[in-house]
Amino acid sequence: MAEHRSMQRAALLDAARSLLSEGGTEALTFPALAERTGLARSSVYEYFRSRAAVVEELCEVDFPLWAAEVAAAMELADSAEGKVEAYVRQQLALVGDRRHRAVVAISASELDAGAREKIRAAHGGLVTMIVEALGEMGHEQPRLAAMLLQGVVDAAVRRIELGAAEDPAAITDAAVAMVLRGVKG
Fold first, then answer.
1. What is residue 109's three-state secondary structure?
2. How many other CB atoms sit within 10 Å of the CB of residue 134?
3. Which of 35, 10, 7, 9 is nearest to 23 (CA)?
4. How far is Cα 174 from Cα 105, in angstroms, rounded to an integer?
5. What span, in angstroms and rounded, lies between the C-alpha atoms of 162 and 170?
6. Contact status, residue 183 vs residue 104, Cβ threshold 8 Å
7. Residue 94: which H helix or E strand, with range?
8. Which of 151, 172, 178, 180 is CA-nearest to residue 90?
9. C-alpha to C-alpha distances, 110 to 12, 52, 114, 115, 116, nearest whole angstrom
10. How far does the chain reach from its first CA to its final CA, in angstroms?
11. pLDDT tens-digit profile of 87-144?
């Protein structure tokens, strides 16, 4: 029974990712989740009390995976600058990933305080990963620099998500160049 519930919950989360990446937050409804998973709408409520609860669980499940991917890319770098570049490039490489697209859609929506806090905390974990590298580069305020650096990454993500006229690789290269010049200050 527990294994069945776990499989159903995973199927609901997968359906939520698909709905979010296909149609944004408006598409994430319990009737749509029920239709995608073959469950009755009332059954969806047995797993999640609200849309915000679905969002919170997606954050709990997916953010650690993305953070691990970013951390792994950073570990391959042999210098602080290389770590900064890997941090930016890996996050922007994840833009096409369905899990990432779902969270971009989520973060654009109106969520309850708990869901917003989970997203903020997860992003804070990403920012923390780059603080050490910025300190190694001699930045006087590495935490502030990390937060501003993440702002550049977030802007590049939005530009790529919008399907901007520029090629995603050009957006990535521009973001890396801007970040590296900026953190050298």
1. coil
2. 22
3. 35
4. 24
5. 14
6. no
7. none
8. 172
9. 21, 9, 12, 9, 9
10. 58
11. 999 999 988 676 666 666 555 555 667 666 766 777 777 888 899 999 999 989 999 9
**Coil, strand or helix: which one is 111?**
coil
Confidence of residue 38 (pLDDT cuts 50, 70, 90): very high
What are 125's two structure tokens? 């974990």
Q: What is the DSSP string of 35-87?
A: HHHT--HHHHHHH-SSHHHHHHHHHHHHHHHHHHHHHHHHHT-SSHHHHHHHH
Q: Which of 125, 11, 7, 3 is nearest to 59 (CA)?
A: 125
Tokens 């520029």: give the residue: 166
Structure tokens at 172: 């990535």
Q: State which amino acid sits at residue 1.
A: M
Determine the length of the chain. Answer: 185
What's the distance, CA 10 to chain centroid?
18
Give dist(CA 130, CA 107) in Å, integer: 22
Identify whether the C-beta of residue 153 lies closer than 8 Å to the C-beta of residue 95. no
Query: Six-digit token pair at 68?
Result: 């691990």
- Measured CA to CA, the distance from residue 168 to residue 93 in angstroms comes to 9
